[in-house]
Write a structure and sequence with these properties.
Elements (H helix, E strand, L loop, with lengths): L14 H21 L9 H4 L5 H23 L4 H8 L16 H17 L4 H16 L13 H8 L6 H33 L2 H6 L3 H16 L1 H5 L24 H11 L6 H18 L8 H19 L4 H15 L7 H32 L6 E6 L3 H12 L4 E7 L6 H10 L4 E5 L3 H4 L5 E4 L3 E2 L5 E4 L2 H10 L4 E4 L49 E4 L6 E3 L4 E2 L4 H11 L2
Parallel strand pairs: 1-2, 1-4, 2-3, 4-7, 7-9
Antiparallel strand pairs: 5-6, 6-8, 9-10
Length: about 575
């Protein structure tokens, strides 16, 4: 810079300089009090160094080094080059220009960027590079105080920009709110404009559909979707995870599925085979046929190949209807048996071992277990007893028939409920054996419970936390029996024990066909699919808490519900 030119930034003091001056004033006042020196006439550092103030001169000589170091260390971190030059001027002895000193970090970066830009542009002139570097340095220095790059700014313009008052927090917040309001108005205008646009573009859709039949088919499918699936939209989200009933028409012939499994899948879907024991026995018979007809592929192991084939068949059955707990446990035992097959044994012998295992499982887990449970209950059934049961259970039927063979005088009250009305089948079987029976629906269970002496209930599964999973309505019967102080005995084989924990009927359940709840054309639900937001809920099972169950009768012993984990732990050891 020329010697006569005035730096526009030199007139403005930095905050650190002001603080340094204040500290110098405080030190001067303290020295005046100590040495009773005359009061100085000026407060600037230049006046403090004059000979007219000897006391202050001594103070400034002591503190001048600290003040100058503070000014130099604080101003070097600033971006403004003019401020840095001002702070270094008092330290210059020979009056040299501050710009002739060392370059700042910003200038070095600017020069590097200018050199990179020059290399990319193919310009190698050293003078041009220096000029570009100086321009970039000036721009970086003037970031906080922008000035016109074409002409040198005047001192008055720089002073005006520096003297602009800083906005307070409230003013900045008001500006931000005003900007947000303006953006919101723009967005609302755009939304209104977009809402008005579709009517004008609607007449173009027929022409677009008439271009190609494929686009017409794809565009018409979303239009039909809301009309064909109103029930999906009106389904309660609480039951969306449950498996729905499937139609028979979707089970097509699969070349990888054995005919016996395909036939069993249709029977599962049509509810021709119902009941935990019946479904398990049918599955094991079909599995025996699959093992008998299985042929090991070339260069494959018998056990692994059969395991993959059986898994595919089980998946097919699960698609037809969710597997019962008894079926799942039987499948687990079969897989365990596959892993224990001996090596270096002919395939025919391995098949015989598997067939023998299936027959033994049916005999022990279902046949002999029912006899053991019946033996425990025969001691509890006496003359004059009135046994109340719900729905249809093959195990309850076997117990009643055994008591009839023992010539015990008792009668049975069969409680039933819609839509399955499975109790009618149990009523027919018991009446065929000569057992006196009474048939009521579940809404009349409160009237007949006073006559009952014991309540015998079947179970679909017994969960690990002691809850009983059975046909829908079992929990209501157990609740009424508990209110009348009638003992509730649940008859359940150990092959129906499950390791799953469940305290309600929503976490896991099976949804039956909602059309089963429609009684006829005169029913108000006859046209439920066309009414829009309506979907009948037909749950297959419910959960009975252990507080309502007096005991569980198993082939091991008569146990409380809380002993289920014990049976699950010792069952592999005792070989049941």
């Amino acid at each position: 810079m020329p010697g006569n030119a005035v730096d526009p930034l030199a007139t403005e003091k930095t905050r650190d300089q002001i603080m340094a001056e204040r500290e110098a004033k405080k030190l001067a006042k303290q020295a005046k009090k100590q040495k009773t020196a005359p009061t100085p006439t000026a407060a600037t550092p230049a006046v403090l160094t004059t000979p007219s103030a000897p006391a202050t001169k001594i103070i400034t000589e002591v503190e001048q080094t600290t003040i100058t170091t503070k000014l130099t260390t604080t101003t070097t971190t600033k971006v403004q080059d003019a401020v840095a030059s001002k702070t270094t001027q008092p330290a210059a002895v020979n009056g040299k220009d501050a710009e002739a000193g060392e370059k700042t970090r910003e200038q070095i970066k600017a020069e590097r960027e200018a050199k990179k830009a020059a290399k990319k542009a193919g310009k190698g002139g050293g003078a041009k590079v220096e000029g570009i570097a100086q321009q970039l340095a000036d721009l970086k220095v003037a970031e906080k105080a922008p000035v016109a790059a074409s002409a040198a700014p005047s001192t008055t313009e720089a002073d005006q920009e520096k003297k602009k008052p800083a906005l307070s927090k409230a003013e900045r917040r008001a500006i931000q709110e005003a900007q947000r309001a303006a953006k919101a108005q723009v967005q609302t205008k755009k939304a209104q404009h977009a809402a008005k646009a579709p009517p004008s573009a609607a007449p173009k859709e027929p022409n677009r559909k008439s271009v190609s039949p494929t686009t017409a088919a794809t565009s018409s499918s979303p239009v039909k979707c809301p009309a064909s699936t109103p029930n999906v939209d009106c389904r309660v989200k609480l039951f969306n995870h449950l498996v729905c009933a499937k139609e028979d028409s979707q089970f097509i012939n699969d070349p990888l599925v054995h005919p016996s499994i395909a036939r069993l899948g249709v029977q599962y879907a049509k509810r021709t085979v119902v009941g935990s024991n019946a479904r398990c026995i049918a599955f094991l018979h079909a599995l025996r046929q699959v093992v008998h007809d299985f042929e090991t592929p070339a260069k494959k192991e018998f056990g692994r190949s059969l395991d993959a084939a059986v898994k595919h068949h089980v998946d097919h059955l699960h698609k037809c209807r969710p597997l019962a707990v008894s079926v799942s446990n039987a499948y687990k035992q079969f897989k365990n048996q596959l892993t224990q097959l001996p090596a270096d044994v002919p395939e025919t012998e391995l098949k015989e071992l598997l067939v023998h295992f299936i027959d033994t499982y049916i005999e022990n887990q279902i046949g002999k277990a029912a006899q053991a449970i019946s033996g425990f209950l025969q001691e509890k059934i006496t003359d004059g007893d009135v046994l109340l049961t719900f729905a249809c259970s093959s195990l309850i039927q076997f117990i009643c028939e055994e008591a009839k063979r023992r010539q015990v005088a008792f009668r049975v009250i069969v409680v039933d409920s819609r839509p399955g009305c499975e109790g009618q089948e149990l009523l027919r079987r018991l009446h065929a054996t000569g057992i006196p029976c009474t048939y009521v629906l579940i809404n009349a269970v409160g009237y007949v419970m006073a006559e009952a002496t014991k309540v015998l209930l079947g179970a679909h599964a017994l969960l690990a936390n002691g809850y009983v999973m059975a046909r829908t309505g079992t929990a209501q019967v157990a609740l009424v029996a508990n209110a009348h102080n009638v003992p509730v005995l649940v008859c359940c084989e150990t092959h129906k024990f499950s390791e799953r924990f469940q305290t309600d009927a929503i976490v896991y359940n099976e949804l039956s066909d909602p059309n089963q709840l429609v009684r006829g054309d005169k029913c108000q639900l006859s046209n439920w699919a066309a009414k829009g937001k309506l979907l009948p809920l037909n749950l297959s099972y419910d959960i009975t808490p252990p507080e309502l169950v007096s005991a569980v009768v198993t082939e091991v012993a008569i146990l409380p519900c809380t002993s289920v984990p014990v049976i699950l732990r010792i069952k592999p050891d005792i070989g049941y």
